[in-house]
Amino acid sequence: MYRDNFKYKFFTKNNGFSRGIYKGLNCGKYSEDKASIVNKNLKYALNKFGLNGRHLILPNQNHSNRCIIINSPKDKVKICDALVTKSTEVILGVTTADCLPIIFLDNQKKLLEFVMQDGGAYQKG
């Protein structure tokens, strides 16, 4: 989907290479799924959306109200539930299960924020 200069996409757990409790397209880098399988799933998802070769940044989500600013693909990803960027060099993402992904766009400042929202984080502000 497109909104002015921003592009955003969603995908489900359907397809993918994970097995067992992670069956399907598990892109949780911080899950207990095999890292090689998660990386294969991430590559599949990026390729499916024509984004292969791009740098995807996923936070280590912990149901908090913590937000990290990403300025470049080399920035370290920390524990948080929201990412903000002005960079066109990165793709922001969040993984969800029983949570809600929220995207905030600021066209004037060319700013994108991607948030994973759950009840606990909502109550923390």
The succession of helices and strands, N to C, reads EEHEEEEEEH
What is the CATH level 1 assignment?
Answer: Alpha Beta
CATH superfamily, please? CNF1/YfiH-like putative cysteine hydrolases
Major pleated sheet: 4 strands, mixed
Oligomer: single chain
Number of domains: 1
Which structural category do the helix and sheet elements fall into?
alpha/beta
Contiguous uncertain segments of 5+ residues: none
Q: What Rg is obtained from the alpha carbons, in whole angstroms?
A: 14 Å
Total beta strand runs: 8
- Placed side by side, the strands forming the largest sheet appear as 4-5-8-7
Q: In angstroms, what separates the terminal alpha carbons?
A: 28 Å
Strand content: 25-35%
Find the CATH topology. Answer: CNF1/YfiH-like putative cysteine hydrolases
Number of helices: 2
Helix content: 10-25%
By CATH, the architecture is named 4-Layer Sandwich
Task: Summarize the structure in words.
The chain is of the alpha/beta class and 125 residues long. It has one domain (2-124): CNF1/YfiH-like putative cysteine hydrolases (4-Layer Sandwich), CATH 3.60.140. It is 16% helix and 26% strand. It has two helices and eight strands; from the N terminus they run ββαββββββα. The protein has helices at residues 35-48, 119-124, and strands at residues 2-3, 6-7, 55-57, 67-70, 82-85, 90-92, 100-106, 111-117. A four-stranded mixed sheet has the order 4-5-8-7. The chain is globular and about 45 Å long. The two termini are 28 Å apart. 22% of the residues are buried. The model has no long low-confidence stretch (mean pLDDT 84).
